[in-house]
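sorry for the late reply, my laptop died twice this morning and i had to redo everyting from scratch. anyway the thing you sent over, i finally got around to it. pasting the sequence first so we're on the same page, its 244 residues, then the predicted structure underneath. double check i copied it right bc i was rushing
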Amino acid sequence: MTSDAKPFIVIVEDENPLAQVVSTHLENAGMQTQICNRASHAFRFLQRNFANLVLLDLNLPDQSGFALLEELQKAGIEVPIIFVTGNTHELSKIKGLEMGADDYITKPFSYAELVARIRAVLRRTETQRDTHVTRNARLSDSPFEFYGATIEPRRLEVKFPDSAIETIGRKELGILAFLTTSPGTVVTRKALIHAVWGQHADVKSRSLDQYIVKIRDLFKKHGIELDGFRTVHGVGYIYEPRSN
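ok and here's the structure:
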């Protein structure tokens, strides 16, 4: 994250007055925020939008914060989590951290402490993401398949069924990786740009289209028509995996 970029924080809190106060303090500290009052709202939002960090209340009306964290992990949505709750039991704190949360803060808390904890987690996670080639793809990611071709993040290569191997660009890798996490779902242009380039990137739809064309041309060169990867005019794209 560059020094002038404002981190984007999702606040998952059902007590709206508290959520609004937290939002105000974070924005005064140079951050951007989005409030979600339900776990389901937060999950849908994070499926389609990049966030630098989530402040997650443990007790929500529709499900627990623990359950939401599990859903995010199963969906492959990697985002730093700080649990924010009135539960002071040590076992709950341990459970949250063992599940993969990055920190845990109990109510009542000072807003100066909250801001400091957020910044500490952001610094740690930014260092951990040194292997990221885009916001959503890392050199350490496992190979994955896209229409019969094997994508190898470690080498930034694509191996086609005809045994040819082609080098792929970082952004193309990020686009393919994001599409494979959202099969059968319409993905907006904005969501795709945020996932690959980041929340604060100044990327136009025309630039995204050029990368999509490069991907189509590369596969066509090796006899693969991406018929199931379609443009949804005025919205974005949809990826339908090839049925076995």
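The first strand starts at residue 8 and ends at 12.
thats about all i looked at so far, will dig more tmrw
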